[in-house]
Write a structure and sequence with these properties.
The chain has seven helices and six strands; from the N terminus they run ααααααβαβββββ. It is an alpha+beta fold and 217 residues long. It has a six-stranded antiparallel beta sheet, with helices on one face. Helix 3 packs antiparallel against helix 5, helix 3 packs antiparallel against helix 6 and helix 5 packs across helix 6. The radius of gyration is 24 Å and the shape is elongated. The chain starts with 16 loop residues before the first helix and ends with a strand.
Length: 217
């Protein structure tokens, strides 16, 4: 008779000598950590005040939050991820770009917290996702060049029928043009856009917006 060995759980601890060395160093560092010396309830309260980037870095680098004890079978809940999830549940996210749902909660929180930072000519780049500001009248004025602000010194990109559907929604940057302007003009890739924002064999269509009309997703 042929006996089939039942599948067992794979070992969670280090296997190679190098993994043992790294595990020992991490375990020593975690024992020295004042933060990890707190009880679980107090530790969870402390994490609730940290921004998304700090939570993401902590969950990635600290094995205590990833596996529990690295050399033992004890598991702990991923507190940084739970803290990030609670923060996100209290926020109004709106439409988000593709791939956002597959991110970890701490990474999602870091993306959402970037909304408070303004877009600048140095941070805008092709391929990134941005959101058209939610106020339709403000976006119209910026596109048409109305008003007395500094942005009116540059030429107006114009406002066309169909651009209303982009207000408050995220789109990918197809091109960033700084020609003859103090502030860049950003071409967003929009499915129903009528302006060719990028040439080539298969042109990319969308709409142009001034940088002031956009914000982080």
């Amino acid at each position: 008779t042929l006996r089939v060995k039942p599948p067992g759980t794979p070992p969670r601890g280090p296997i190679t000598r190098r993994q043992h060395t790294l595990a020992t160093k991490r375990e020593t560092n975690e024992k020295r950590s004042r933060l990890l010396q707190l009880n679980d309830d107090l530790l969870e309260l402390v994490l609730s005040f940290l921004p998304g980037k700090s939570l993401a870095a902590m969950e990635t680098t600290c094995t205590h939050f990833r596996y529990g004890g690295y050399l033992t079978g004890n598991t702990t809940s991923a507190m940084p991820e739970h803290s990030a999830k609670r923060k996100l549940d209290a926020l109004e996210l709106g439409d988000m770009p593709p791939g956002f749902r597959k991110m970890k909660w701490s990474r999602k929180l870091a993306v959402v917290e970037a909304r408070c930072l303004p877009l600048t000519p140095g941070t805008i780049e092709r391929g990134m996702w941005v959101r058209v500001k939610p106020c339709c009248e403000t976006v119209k004025k910026l596109c048409r060049g109305d008003g007395d602000g500094d942005e009116t010194r540059d030429y107006a990109v114009g406002w066309e029928q169909g651009m209303d559907d982009t207000v408050g929604r995220p789109f990918q940057v197809g091109v960033v043009s700084r020609a003859h302007r103090k502030s860049p003009v950003v071409g967003l890739s929009v499915n129903n856009g009528l302006v060719a924002i990028a040439g080539g064999r298969f042109p990319t269509y969308g709409w142009f917006f001034p940088l002031e009309a956009l914000e982080h997703v």
